[in-house]
């Protein structure tokens, strides 16, 4: 009997059928245009490790993990950051379209000038002392989340000549156990940099790429205060949001 290419292998050589990765929706581990993927992804079959009590039961990802201002990235310092204030909101749903409540949603992003508050980000764009660029919240009973933040700027990176990343916000979603984590990126509509960005173009199906796009939401926009963008996240199924592999998560944007 042949081994399915997406099966997880145990140390004894047996395989365990699991969720088959949709190769039209999710980016491949090795994408020629995204050069550093060749250095990161596994070269051998995956090994299925048993989940022990520690991984299954801790840490508990509940409301007590979220601070009062964690969802508002503009109020985490003494003064407000520079840039266009925006509201980012949406709903987390499963493959059947049902809302997924009590999901820990984390975000991280560059500031309005396109720079991360990170020791390894040293391109000559200004750092904003009033913007850290990280936040978290829990989805409510209807699977809804909401952040207030600053629209991030584009930034250069060394993947290819004159390479610039489109404006984006990183999202991380945790399930009921610490080992249940999905990571993806949200983009903004009509960005002129999509044509040359290998991360965006590594998703094979153009329709799947569109599911990484937020949409301007005038009904949620608050007059004289903040523009709003809606982005719904579908965890599985035909309309699932494209997610990254763990290898891409560890060294993204380098």
UniProtKB/TrEMBL annotation:
This protein's record includes keyword Oxidoreductase: yes
Domain Intradiol ring-cleavage dioxygenases per the UniProt entry, residue ranges: 88-116
Species, as recorded: Nocardiopsis sinuspersici
The keyword Membrane is annotated on this UniProt entry: no
Pfam families xref list: Dioxygenase_C, PCDO_beta_N
Family, similarity comment: Belongs to the intradiol ring-cleavage dioxygenase family.
Name by which UniProt lists this protein: Protocatechuate 3,4-dioxygenase subunit beta
Superkingdom of source: Bacteria
Single biological process term from Gene Ontology: 3,4-dihydroxybenzoate catabolic process
Matching CDD domains: 3_4-PCD_beta
